[in-house]
Each structure stands twice: as C-alpha cells, then as structure tokens.
Amino acid sequence: MPALMANHLRTTLRQQHAVEAIERLGGCVYYDYEIDDKFQCDPNRRSWLPDWMMDRFGPDWAHSVAVLNMAYRAVDGRVIRNEGCNDDAMYYLDAFPSLQVLVATQRQVTDRSMEQVARLKHLKKLYLSDARGITDTGTERLRKLRGLVSLHLTHASLRDDSLEFVESLPNLKVLSVRGNRLSDDAFANFSRLQQLESLEFGMAEFVVSNDALIQLAELKQLRYVQVASLPLTNEAIDCFGRLSQLEQLCLEDTEITDLARLQTVLPDCRIQLHSTTTW
Prior knowledge:
This protein is about 25% helix and about 20% strand.
C-alpha cells in the first residue's frame, strides 16, 4: 500500500507540474470531469470530489488531464492565440497519458513533437493547424494512434503519399486535410476509410479530377463533405450525385454555378455555398 501511495503521489505531482508549465507557455488544459462523452469541454461541470478536497488537494490528485490546447485559450470571453510557443511544449505530453484531445499549431507541430504525440494511446481527437513543420516522417509516426476518431491536419507539408498512414486508423471518422498539396492519388487513401463520416479538403495546390470524386461514393458512411477553393465546375455535379448518402455538402470558392441541378441530384442533402447560403 505505501508503494502504491508513493507512486500515485509521483504521478500526481508530475501532472501538476506539467499543467503549470503548459499554462506558463500559453496553453490550457481540461480535466476528465470537465468534458462530456463527445469530448466537448464544459468548465462548469463539477468533480465528484467534495469541494473541500478540491480546495485542499487540487484536481490532479483524483483526475487526469483529458484535453490539452496549445493553440489558443479563452480569457474573459476573448480568444487568445498562442503563436509564440514551439515544440518544446510537447515535452510535457508524457505527463498526460490519458489525454483524449490535443490541439496544437504552427511551430508546436513538428516531426520531433509527433514522437511524443504517438505515445498517447487514449487520444481520440487530434487538431494540428498551420502544420508546415510536419513531413512524411512525422505523419508516419501517427500510425500508432489506432484509437483516433478525428484528425485535422491542415496547411501542412503533405503530399499524396503522406496520407497512407490513415489506413492504419480503423476508428477514424472525421478527416480534414485542407491546405495540403494533394491530388487524385490521395483519394485512393480516402476511399479505403470505410468508416469515414466527414471529409474536408481543398485550398493550396490541390488538384482533383471528377474521377477522384467518384471514388468517394465507396464511403457508405460519409455524411459531410467540405470542398474549399478548388476549380470544380458543373461537370462535377454528377459525381457528387453519386454520394447519395450525404447529409451536408459545403462548397467554398468553387466554379460550380448550377446549384439547382446539384440540389436535384442530392435532394436529401443540405447544400451550403461559402458556408453561409443554404439551398
């Protein structure tokens, strides 16, 4: 029993010190009692610990950090972006073995930091934005995150081959790869994700043909697609028509103009133009 208590104390202090370091670096954390079953944060949720124990021992004694956001934090209703922190912050990830959601951006996202991320066995959602510091080496390390449900890897230095690792993520339901230099070959990887429900792509030097769009018809669970800044024309409408299971389609800055026809081929789908106009 003394050994167990000593081990628990070491784990508690390690997490506590890591939380303090993260906050000094401009990040923020949420504990397991502050998130719901959809991994949404609610700081008003209360711990099962009595208030006097929380006041005396703090949350680290009985709770694990479940969410780490290094990209931004809310202060008095304002969003403060954390753009000055580099990947040294990821050194503290080992203190959060039960982490379920990680949000990081810019210089925090590198091939080196993905080594620490890949050790998070309980991670469900991973948001990496403006991730230009990650290459094929870094994405390959993400294969180990087999419990991952949602992956946002945007504005990174990715190529078609960089996305082969997603085939190793059997639980992945949400994928966003906006802002990456991809082409038709990337859709071969997408089409193997039979469990995928949401897909976002486009922007940057993204070139896609109608044949590639047709491959998405193989994803029977796909319900949401967002396409941004691609030169898709009305010829793509019939391709989208094959995605009869879609519930929502968002088109941003494309060359599709015949929206009435698009709604005809997708009668049960909510179609949005520039994310504001609904047809």
